[in-house]
Amino acid sequence: xxxxxxxxxxxxxxxxxxxxxxxxxxxxxxxxxxxxxxxxxxxxxxxxxxxxxxxxxxxxxxxxxxxxxxxxxxxxxxxxxxxxxxxxxxxxxxxxxxxxxxxxxxxxxxxxxxxxxxxxxxxxxxxxxxxxxxxxxxxxxxxxxxxxxxxxxxxxxxxxxxxxxxxxxxxxxxxxxxxxxxxxxxxxxxxxxxxxxxxxxxxxxxxxxxxxxxxxxxxxxxxxxxxxxxxxxxxxxxxxxxxxxxxxxxxxxxxxxxxxxxxxxxxxxxxxxxxxxxxxxxxxxxxxxxxxxxxxxxxxxxxxxxxxxxxxxxxxxxxxxxxxxxxxxxxxxxxxxxxxxxxxxxxxxxxxxxxxxxxxxxxxxxxxxxxxxxxxxxxxxxxxxxxxxxxxxxxxxxxxxxxxxx
Length: 406
Known about the structure:
The chain is α+β, with helices and mostly antiparallel strands. The protein has helices spanning about 1-10, 25-45, 115-160, 165-205; strands at about 50-55, 60, 70-80, 80-85, 90-95, 105, 110-115, 205-210, 215-220, 225, 235, 240-245, 250-255, 270-275, 280-295, 300-305, 315-325, 335-340, 345, 350-355, 360-370, 375-380, 385-390, 400-405. Strands 2-18-22-21-20-19 form a six-stranded antiparallel β-sheet, with no helix packed on it. The chain has a six-stranded antiparallel beta barrel with strand order 3-13-16-15-14-17.
């Protein structure tokens, strides 16, 4: 019983005992959070050892033209040297050796025709020549024999062994045989000329390029009949293709006769192909054709192309601008390069800028020229293509590492 009383006494609440309050821990948590924010802000906002800059290339200065166009016109690219290549004889194409777009040299074989008839005719002519030469040999022999007989008869007449009539007969025969020799010589000459003719006919079965150029059109195929342009005929072609000398390309334009006074031979011209409208082609007036087209009231003008280019093709459309004399003399190109004005620390006619080399700044002392909306002209110290740094110049220093801003 006493033990239970003791236990109950331990469970009794003492209302007069002092209250023990918990220790305040939250201020420490707040302080730790503030410190963490300060550290993060420092790490984020602290100055970096690598500068971020903008890179701008130094640009070459361009010259300005001294004049402008006095007349604009439209025309076409034409070839002054162009031919439809054909054979000299009518025949069947046995071999065709070219394709469209192929470049050929002067004298190059383009096609061969069936030459069996020409070869047979040539062989016959050679046989006739052999026969003519044999006839000439026989005539020479007979002439010599007749001449000897006439000489013997003359001696016999002198000695009184034969009458004068015998000698006269022998002499007439000698003269006839001599004439026979001349005829045989003529036959040989004719046979030789026949061989030349038939040899030429055989050569004409081979079609060759009359000049160097490009095959732009192929008209015939193997097995087809072709003929000279003047012959033609049903079922025959009048040429194997079109050959163009690309070095003879020029521009032809029709100028309204009211403005032809603005065009003179030798006048500078700028041409722009419809296919390449941004490409300016330097040209020059070759000639003003001295006749007008009554129906169109225009005068044809030939314009030469100063620099040949494979992009220029026959029959291309082109727009031309006839320039005045001043336009043909471009102003002297300014010296130096253009750089952004805010990339230079200016001090009179000199300055300092920074060029980016291997991700580092390189300090350059430069000589300055004029200033315009295009930027600052730099006469020396920087070359075209150098990457110039643009940014806060106060933070730039020689050798500083940089990052190029996008």
